[in-house]
Design goal:
266 residues; globular; TIM Barrel
């Protein structure tokens, strides 16, 4: 069970947090609880999530794996834009290094924009060059389809794949299955449904609510435990700016879903 820093900035992942001290407490509590995998990005804020990480945790624990990503940017209004060209990928890595206070980012995910006109192989070569320079330790992929995953496999060592996947959205099952077969860590983003959808359909599903009530857990814990039980290579990064929700998420790692639950859930 890791931690995702996406919810630490303000609404829309833009601007400062509503409660800075609470955000710092969440990060320090995650560290003290043994979390050693934190997912972040320079464009969360922008700069806000990384700045909070540095303030709360620097000097970083030796076993902490910070995973960031490149391939996107924000404008002054908080709109998301692709930053897909090799020089933009390099600039993204350099921005992460500066804001995190690192000489090397342990893992950087190449986030593929669906409308990108940059050849995928060109992006992979750019990421490999950054790895060879020592600016990043390992290369991950994000938002890729099966063909892109196979292309990357032929060109680089893949550290992890970060794609949408949850109880309500298994449209990327082919990539999930490929990662499971290859033993490549799979990191589902939006494990409880899209952060931009306040309805969170995963948590409102009748089967999830009924299972949670029967097992004395919360719907969020059921949804997270379901993901963990799909395969041993699943790494979770649920995010929160609430210390209470952090404790709830961490406890999901110890919730075992029985056969009745697994049969009832999608």
């Amino acid at each position: 069970m890791g931690f995702g820093a996406m919810q630490l900035p303000g609404p829309g992942v833009f601007g400062p947090p509503k409660d800075r001290e609470s955000a710092l407490r969440v990060l320090r509590r995650a560290r003290d609880a043994g979390v050693n995998h934190i997912d972040t990005a320079q464009f969360y804020g922008p700069d806000v999530a990384n700045a909070l990480l540095r303030e709360a945790l620097y000097p970083y624990p030796d076993d902490l794996v910070i995973v960031s990503k490149v391939g996107a940017a924000r404008d002054d209004q908080g709109q998301w834009h692709g930053a897909q060209r090799p020089e933009q990928l390099r600039a993204g890595v350099e921005a992460n290094l500066e804001s995190l206070g690192l000489e090397q980012v342990p893992v950087v995910n190449l986030r593929r924009h669906p409308d990108s006109d940059v050849p995928f192989s060109e992006q992979l070569h750019a990421m490999e060059a950054l790895r060879e320079e020592g600016l990043i330790g390992h290369i991950g992929l994000s938002n890729v389809d099966l063909e892109q995953y196979r292309t990357a496999q032929s060109l680089i060592d893949i550290a992890c794949v970060q794609n949408p996947y949850n109880l309500a959205d298994t449209s990327g099952q082919d990539v999930f299955d490929a990662c499971r077969a290859d033993g490549v860590p799979f990191v589902p983003f939006f494990p409880l449904g899209s952060a931009f959808n306040p309805e969170k359909p995963v948590l409102r599903a009748p089967s999830v609510e009924a299972t949670a009530q029967r097992l004395g857990a919360t719907p969020a814990q059921v949804a997270l435990a379901w993901l963990l039980q799909q395969a041993p290579m699943v790494l979770l990064i649920p995010g929160t700016s609430s210390p209470e929700h952090l404790e709830e998420n961490l406890a999901a790692a110890h919730l075992v879903l029985d056969q009745e639950a697994l049969a009832m859930l999608p």
